[in-house]
Amino acid sequence: MTVGTPAQGHLWPGKPVCNTRSVNTISTATGADAVRAELFADLSIEVGHLGALDERLEADFTVEDRGFAQLGAITDDYDRAVISDQIDASVGSTATNLLEARLHQRDIEERTGDDGIGFPTEETAKERTLQGVKTERDITGWGRGLCSALDCLAACAIGVLRIPISIRKASFSPLVKLSELMVKGTAAQQQSWTGLVAIIETHRSDYPTGWFDWLSGVRHLNIHRARQINVLLQRTKDDDQEALIFVAEDPTTVDEVTKTMARFDLHLRQRPQLSDMQDLIEAPKATDIWIAEPAQNTLAGVFLTTNQLVEEIAGFLLDQWVAIGDNSTDFPVPADKWKPDRNIPAGFEGVTGVASSFKPAKGQLHTHPALAKRLALAEELATTQGSRRPGAHKP
Question: What are the residue boundaries of the structural domains of the chain, listed by start?
């Protein structure tokens, strides 16, 4: 991912937590980077700070250092390489998840259109059902993408700020409760962690009210629980809109024409954490069940709010990464919490039963420079760190 133009204004923390110095990034832009940057711009996804963080981490990741020199306190080369890769790769995955969420949102918008959803007919019933399933899929993908973006960024935050939490099992939820871990940090860490918590709390309490918990509820509902019933509400006519008046002798004709003219919008539920039955019982009135605005407005607004949170955290983490450096006194590396599990499971060999006889064609591997470093490091460690590779050195 290449660096874009950082958003200005409120996205930077008002006061840096650590003393900072200027950052000289090394450009590794490729044709794919340029295309990817253009795609983010076309879809109005802000990745200026996220891209700068990604570029800095990629520049600092080297084969010679077995990943990051900052993590030199991790003396095992295998562990340092794996942990460094987890921290670095999580930033690019954050951006990818934002991209996927935005694409799901756009698909919903295109399916609804400016004209809204028409009344189903006998001829369109099957297609309407299929469109409904696709919309459910995209709502699920949208919520999953945004929450996964936050989880991936959390993995990077844990590594940058030396938080004693597993990187491999990282999620955003522990960062929300990071104040509970303050006693385990040094004075410098507590100051840094407090800065991160302040950013999160500012965005969580910002408009639209309750967006963070609602987003978490949407993701949990659609991935782990029975789906809630979607609500389609007919659009109302504004006072200044003209009404079509027609005369017909057959009253049923009036009904059919009225249904043909009617347009509907999808509305999301206010409380995704509740089952349908409990929501229907508890709602004081019917209108308290759904969000008044059309779903496309809700999805776009929550995406923007999440994107802003991601960008400010990314800018903060870049600032901290540079300032902390290899300061292992004030920011000790919790190597025991981050240690990779070396109990490697057997790989799935597919369903045809011929995986073991597959022989790829010989040739060159064309890849991004950042991935090339990882492949080179992995190849070296595979023969020196007791991996399962035949002939590897056994420690």
Answer: 31-227+300-344+368-382
